[in-house]
Amino acid sequence: MNRKASILYVDDEVENLEVFEATFWRNYNLHLAQSADEGLHILEHYPVNLIITDQRMPNITGIEFLEKIPERHKETVRILLTGFSDIDTVIDAVNRGKINHYVTKPWNKAELSRVIENSLEMHRIKEENAYLLQQLQLSNARLQNINSNLEGTVDERTRELQEKNTLLEEAFEKLKTTHSKLIHSEKLATLGMLSAAIGHEINNPIGFVKGQIAMLQRNFKELQSASGEDKVRLENEIGISIEEANQGIIQVSEIIRSLKYFAGEGQLKPYMANIYSGINSTLKLFSGVLYDNHITLERNFQSEECNIEALHTALNQVFSNIITNAIDAINEKVTTNNLVNFPGKIVISTTQNDEEILITFKDNGIGMTDDVLENIFNPFFTTKNEGSGIGMSICQDVVNEHNGKINIKTHPGLGSDITVAIPRR
Ligand SMILES: Nc1ncnc2c1ncn2[C@@H]1O[C@H](COP(=O)(O)OP(=O)(O)O)[C@@H](O)[C@H]1O
Ligand SMILES: [Mg+2]
Fold this sequence. Notes:
It is built from ten helices and twelve strands. Among the domains are: 102 residues, Response regulator (Rossmann fold, 3-Layer(aba) Sandwich); 160 residues, 2-Layer Sandwich (Heat Shock Protein 90). The protein is an alpha/beta fold and 425 residues long. Helix 5 packs antiparallel against helix 6. It binds adenosine-5'-diphosphate and magnesium ion. Magnesium ion (MG) binds next to helix 8.
């Protein structure tokens, strides 16, 4: 590859061209032109690094020639050769940026060589600068591109995440309402199961009260015509009837109170109450069902008082879910094994200290396999044909909300112990 710089030299005098050629041919690639047109022609066809032109030519001045040089040679270094008398024009040309240097004629080799070398060096530096600048601009552009892509990606990811988040929030809201609906339906199911037995339970005392009232009416009529011992006897009987009727009414109202206690919409804020009132009301509701299923209930309470701040309605649902499961477990054992007169039994015991109260529901039902035990708290897990599978999951939610624990011990075929531990705070 020829690494010599290319120089175009334009001069109308052939001798000048010859001297120039003789002086510089070793050092540069020379293009010699005798007129501006020839010069332009060369520029069109060859790469040229440096243009040297004479100012005084017959048809055109050097500066005019330089003005005709096409745009793509704008950066090519130009040197003007002038006579002394042209200096003002030349200075003007320099100022207007048409030439980079000028050399007065007649030139000597040393001076012209120096100017050519300096000009070429300057040109080289300029080109290098331009190249570096271009590279810098390219890199910048690339960086900007990457940056804006990055911003776009980050934006997009953020938006995606936000969208997902909204979806999740919506799903969570839906889940919460579904969950509370489920809790409610589980409660209704229990109430449905209980209602027949509760009807019985209410009918008994009401029948009893009716009887007492009939007796009262009769005795009261007789009392009006009675005297002496008879009158005293009747007055005593009336007193007893009133007392018994009153007891019957109290029983009914207790059942109704228990029902209200159980069915109450779960209160949102914990409040202070005796947890035993909840346990006893729940048990009262179940007494008819237990009786109908030939299941005996044993209470083994350490105390009758334990005040805790809690969601008591929710805790009652926990007790009722566990008792329902215990009844189911006993019935299942009876049916699967075709047992006759099986003494089904549920024992409810409590122990308490300053820190917590433990309530254990022990049944002698079917018990649980490892598989059942592993899944018991999973929502919708059920081994029953008509089961909802959410009873125990509700229990766990409620107990967790009270920072408590549910502990299960079970022996397949023999029964289960389910212990609810609630901290007293
Ligand atoms: N005391 C218990 N004895 C035996 N199995 C039980 C007992 N309690 C719960 N289980 C098992 O756990 C499952 C889930 O109970 P639960 O969440 O209350 O739903 P469901 O009663 O509707 O099936 C029951 O189907 C049953 O297999
Ligand atoms: Mg259940």
